[in-house]
Automatic annotation (TrEMBL):
It comes from Zoogloea oleivorans. This is DUF2325 domain-containing protein. Belongs to the UPF0751 family. Keywords: Coiled coil. Residues 243-270 form a coiled coil. InterPro entries: UCP020408 (IPR016772).
Amino acid sequence: MAKPAARTLLAGLPTCLPALPTSRIWIGNCANCATGPVSAWSRTTREAAMCFTPESGKSDLQSLIRSEYASALVAIDMPAASAGARTQVRRPKLWDLDDKHHCPIIGTCLSMDELLRLARRFHFAAPLNDEFALHVEAVGLSRSRNPASEAIQRHLDRKYSSWLDRFAKLKSDAELRHSWRDSMVRGDVAGPLWALCTHRAASVATQQQAYADIHMLSHQVGAGQAADARRLMHLEKENLELKSGLKRELAALRRQLAAAEAGLAEQESLRTETATLQKRLQRFESGQVIVEMGQRLMALQTTHDTLVSASGRVWEVERNLKDLREDTARIAAERDSALAERDALEQLLRAMEPAGCDKPGGDDCAGCEHALTERCILYVGGRASLLAQYRQLAGRLGISLIHHDGGQEEALSRLPELIRGADAVLCPTDNISHNAYYHVKAHCKRVGKPCLFYKGGGVSGFALAVARLGRGEYSLAGSQAET
């Protein structure tokens, strides 16, 4: 028998056929598929098969013959000629076949999915996840006419209708046997098996031949499975190695491709750059670029001269603007100073009005609202030429003014005594030496004498300082309050 055909029929073949001992008596009782006796006959030219398990003995055989199915025919030493062709009036159904044929038909002609659908439809008692139990139950149901066996009959007729039509054209048992051999060679036996077993002209010998072929095919398939499994493992290992090598080669090829693409891109960039340089070179050689560069240079020179001239004007304007800002700030400061002096002088003039003070400088000035709390003021520094005006203004305000020239002619050693004898100290910072300034500041801080440092040695500045003293704008301990 052709080995490829055996491997093709791996799926769906019955696996319940046991190893059969040699015998001349063949009793169709399959202990794995169903129970009960079936028709029997003998073979003289081939090894007979016995569906009893190896543990079955003589007593089991006798019990089987006495069972309720004892109507089965037991043929002993029957010549092979008695199993000749048979002629039936109608095409046999599934339940009309010998019980031994149900196992290979169910296992070979029905796929597992079809068997599961059949089990769900007719509520098999076997678990749906137990393929062998489902097979056994389907084989048992096929032995008699019932809704399940009728459904299997209709399904197989529809599924293998083309094979039924092909075998229907065969009229003799010899033609059936020849067609079966061709099917075995091709490796397609499921449809031919169903068409052969249910053909009216099929003899018992031909059916037995098909059964034997399927039975031996299952053994070959089982033996081939182990070899195929080993071969499959080897092929899978080889496949993994080839895939790994292919991946490495593919990665190397991809790297080479990326490098080639990068090289092509670089070449294209160089080609474009070369073409651009060639065009520029042609323009240089033709003199057109020199002319254009000369024109651009002249235009740039003109623009440069214009910008230089404008920059000079801008610089001059900025310098004038800076001078104007400084003048403006100085004038504003002078204005503020003049306004402050004006306000101070106005205040002093209002204080010196007859209506405000009838006896300026008298003893009653102490109670006047315009009088200062500081009745004796030490004035350090200032302008010597304005000393008389300082005294006159102070006298109008009822103030006794003591003067020290800030170390120009008078000794600085007199300052501590003069500071202790005065109520307050005025010191114009722009008309005094640094040495005198620090002497005044240190001694006032030591004795806590009110002291006011201010800018402006004129009469108006003196008047403003006196007014500030009147408002209490001075700091004890010699802290500055300059304006």
